[in-house]
Amino acid sequence: MAAQQKSMSSSLMGTLAASCLFLMALWVQGGAAAPIVSHCLLDRANFQQPYITNRTFALAHEASLADNNTDVRLIGTKLFQGVNMMERCYTLKQVLNFTLEEVLFPQSNRFKPYMQEVVPFLARINKKLDQCRIQRDNQNIQRNVQNLKDTVKKLGESGEIKVIGELNLLFMALKNECTHPGQSSEMDN
Questions:
Q1: How many Å apart are CA 71 and CA 141, to the nearest integer?
Q2: Alpha carbon of 16 to those of 9, 10, 13, 21: distances in Å?
Q3: Residue 131's pLDDT is what?
Q4: In Å, what is the CA distance from 37 to each residue of 54, 107, 129, 132, 155?
Q5: What is d(CA 1, CA 149) in angstroms, rounded to the nearest whole number?
Q6: Residue 139, number of CB atoms within 10 A of its CB
C-alpha cells in the first residue's frame, strides 16, 4: 500500500512539473499558444547591405515626393494593433506580399533605376518568408492587413505611390521584426 501511494505521489509530481514547465513556456511567449517559428526569422545581414539599403531609401524618397497625402500612414502602430510581438514578422510578410503583387510588380516601369533593383531584393525576402506561418487565430492580423489594403485601394494611384513612398518604413520594420542580431534562420543557410 505504501509503495502504491509513493508511486502515485511520484506520478502526480511528474505531471505537476510538466504542467509548470508548460505554463512557464507560455509565459515566456507572452501567453500565446503559438510556437516560435524559425521560418519567420531572417538573417540580419540581408538588411545590412549598404547598396540595397540606399537604393530602397532613394526609391521611397523619390516616391514620397509624388505623395500628396500626408495624413495617411500605412506602416505604423495601427498595423500591429492587437498583434502579439511574436506575430509581427508574419504580419509584415502579408504586407510585403501585397506590396509586391499589387503595387511593385504592376508599377515596375516607374521610378527607374531604383525599382529594378529594389523589387528583386524584396521578392527574395518574400521568398525567404514563404514558410513563415502562425498556428493560431490570426483575425487581428488579417483585419489590420485588410485595412491597409482597403486604404491603398481607396486612395487609388495615390495609395500605390504611398506604398512605394513607405518602402523605407517596410524595410526597417522587416529588419526590426524579422531578424535577431547575430542569428541566422535555417532558410538563409
A1: 23
A2: 10, 10, 5, 9
A3: 92
A4: 30, 33, 11, 7, 35
A5: 68
A6: 9
- Is it true that the peptide bond before 113 is cis, omega within 30 degrees of 0? yes
Give this prediction's pTM: 0.76
DSSP state of 72: -
Q: Which residues on neighbouring strands pair with residue 183, listed in sequence order?
A: 180
Q: Which of 63, 155, 157 is nearest to 111 (CA)?
A: 63
pLDDT tens digits along 146-186? 999 999 999 999 999 999 999 999 999 999 999 975 544 44
Looking at residue 129, what DSSP letter applies?
Answer: T
Round to whole Å and give the CA distance between 44 and 28: 23
DSSP state of 114: H
C-alpha cell at 84: 502579439
Q: Counting runs of H as helices and runs of E as strands, what totals does the chain give?
A: 7, 0
The whole-angstrom separation of Cα 107 and Cα 119 is 10
Separation of first and last alpha carbons in the chain = 58
Q: Hunting for cell 488579417 — which residue is that? A: 142
What burial class does residue 159 get, using C-beta atoms within 10 Å of its C-beta: 0-12 exposed, 13-18 middle, 19+ buried?
buried
2: helix, strand or coil: helix
